[in-house]
Specification:
1 helix; 2 domains; Thrombin, subunit H; two-stranded antiparallel ribbon; mainly beta; elongated; 49% strand; six-stranded antiparallel barrel; 125 residues; 8 strands
Length: 125
């Protein structure tokens, strides 16, 4: 009997996975399925249950927690509880860079003794 509250959508998409608070390098994995609250990913090696992860997929960043680890068909798979999803990051970065360029053009520059440039957030202050 199916106990899931939400449908799962099958995928096979590459993902970059960072285990937060861990010194290991970024892992290359695959997003296998996704629902409104969770996802399943394939990993090259196990990660601890409860570990917080940052998953980068295309133009999205997902923060999740490892709910369980399984070894299916010779691969390591993790079930994740999704906490936050940020999408449209490239557009956000373009907007941020554009605003910084405008601010630099309008604001007087101040330098610290080590040469760093300080830009005020509000030109009226």
């Amino acid at each position: 009997m199916e106990r899931r509250r939400e449908p799962r959508f099958q995928l096979n998409q590459p993902a970059r996975i960072t285990v937060l608070r861990d010194a290991r390098p970024v892992l290359e994995g695959r997003l296998l399925n996704v629902s409104g609250r969770g996802m399943r990913i394939a990993l090259p090696s196990p990660v601890p249950v409860g570990a917080p992860l940052k998953i980068e997929i295309g133009d999205a960043l997902i923060l999740a927690e490892v709910a369980y680890i399984s070894h299916d068909d010779g691969s390591v798979q993790a079930g994740l509880k999704v906490d936050q999803v940020l999408s449209g990051l490239s557009e956000l970065m373009r907007l941020h860079q554009s605003l910084l360029r405008e601010q630099r053009a309008e604001s007087p520059r101040q330098a610290t003794p080590n040469g760093d440039v300080i830009l005020p957030l509000d030109a009226s202050t």
